[in-house]
Design brief:
The protein has helices spanning 2-31, 40-66, 68-71, 78-111, 127-155, 266-273, 304-312, 317-320, 333-340, and strands spanning 164-171, 174-179, 213-215, 218-221, 225-232, 237-241, 246-250, 256-261, 280-284, 296-302. The protein is of the alpha+beta class and 344 residues long. The chain has a domain at 164-339: Immunoglobulin-like (Sandwich), CATH 2.60.40.420.
Length: 344
């Protein structure tokens, strides 16, 4: 935030200087002395271009260095390594071009400030130059777009059959999680069945719901595909797990999904970061209302055998709410009793 306030202060100073220049110019016109083309402010403004360039690039470099770890957390998923590679490749290319063009912009503004003794060069056209600055960006952008499209196609492909299915439902102002149970399949839902108890609107005519269970934290296994089935009840939310490079909107009336493979457990990340209190986080990146800040859940990544043990200890939602057996079709009641563990 300190860097932001410095940048804001610089902007305000420049804006005030420009306003003073404009007022001075208008006063000169009113006094009848405004016909003079070149005034002392011409050199002042040219010098300020260099001052602003140094301040601008200096603050940008300082902020990027000081807060780099905050906006570039370690990668903890397989696809995250690819997306980071694409991101930094694009940043280097566009960053170098940005620096060169803006340095030239400020330097030329100083070097070629108005001089009554110098006439502008008339240079209307150059075919070779046109080919270069059209062709080179076209080739580079084509390469970036195609490599990005190939990565997107792989990341957003169909999740493997063996994926752990987890449903994430967003509402003001919390996330609700439902696991697919032993069969790894999240059952169907019907929004008309949603109430204070059946918060996911589970439809018990679908046998896949019999072993589904809820969890307060997002617990996932390392090295195993995880499919997040995402939806929202009220307004637009957004599932964001920064270390996994997972971000997908939760849209009312339009289910979305995202699958990924975590490759670092929470315990491993604690060692890597040198922080025994480290925790992965599931957050919301849409401004969804006054309680937006509270939409946070802990993400726990376990070794596959630890995850299997944790999952085996969970009780099915139907087992915790046996009164909903009345919504199970008669021909499926026996299966529901066995699958949900109510008879145990």
């Amino acid at each position: 935030m300190f860097g932001f306030y410095i940048a804001l202060a610089v902007f305000l100073v420049v804006a005030i200087l420009l306003l003073i220049f404009r007022i001075t110019r208008l006063v000169d016109i009113v006094k009848g002395t405004g016909d003079k083309i070149v005034t002392g402010s011409n050199n002042v403004n040219a010098a300020l271009m260099i001052v602003f360039m140094v301040l601008f690039f200096g603050l940008m470099a300082w902020y990027s260095w000081a807060y780099f770890d905050d906006y570039d957390p370690p990668v903890a998923s397989e696809h995250g390594e690819l997306t980071d590679k694409l991101f930094w490749r694009t940043m280097w290319i566009t960053g170098i071009v940005f620096a060169i063009t803006n340095i030239l912009l400020f330097v030329f503004s100083y070097k070629y400030k108005y001089d009554e003794k110098r006439r502008a060069l008339f240079y209307p056209h150059n075919n070779k130059l046109e080919y270069i600055w059209t062709g080179v960006p076209a080739i580079v952008l084509t390469w970036l777009v195609i490599s990005g499209w190939m990565a997107w196609d792989g990341i957003m492909s169909e999740a493997p059959e063996e994926s752990e299915q987890i449903e994430i439902v967003g509402q003001q102002f919390f996330w609700s999680l439902r696991y697919g149970g032993a069969d790894n399949k999240v059952g169907d839902y019907d929004y008309r069945l949603i109430n204070a108890v059946n918060t996911h609107g589970m439809d018990f005519s679908d046998r896949a719901n019999f072993d589904d269970f809820n969890s307060n934290n997002l617990v996932i296994p390392k090295g195993v595909p995880v499919l997040l089935k995402i939806r929202a009840k009220d307004v637009l939310h957004s599932v964001f797990i920064p270390h996994m490079r997972v971000k997908m909107d939760a849209v009312p009336g339009m289910p979305t999904q995202f699958w990924f493979i975590a490759n670092k457990t929470t315990a491993e990340m604690k060692i890597e970061e040198g922080n025994p209190d480290f925790e992965y986080e599931l957050a919301c990146t849409e401004i969804c209302g006054g309680g937006h800040f509270s939409m946070k859940k802990k993400v726990i990544v376990l070794e596959p055998d630890e995850y299997a043990e944790w999952k085996a200890d969970q009780k099915a939602w139907l087992s915790n709410n046996p009164e909903y057996m009345s919504q199970v079709p008669d021909n499926l009641k026996e299966l529901a009793l066995v699958t949900s563990g109510i008879n145990e």
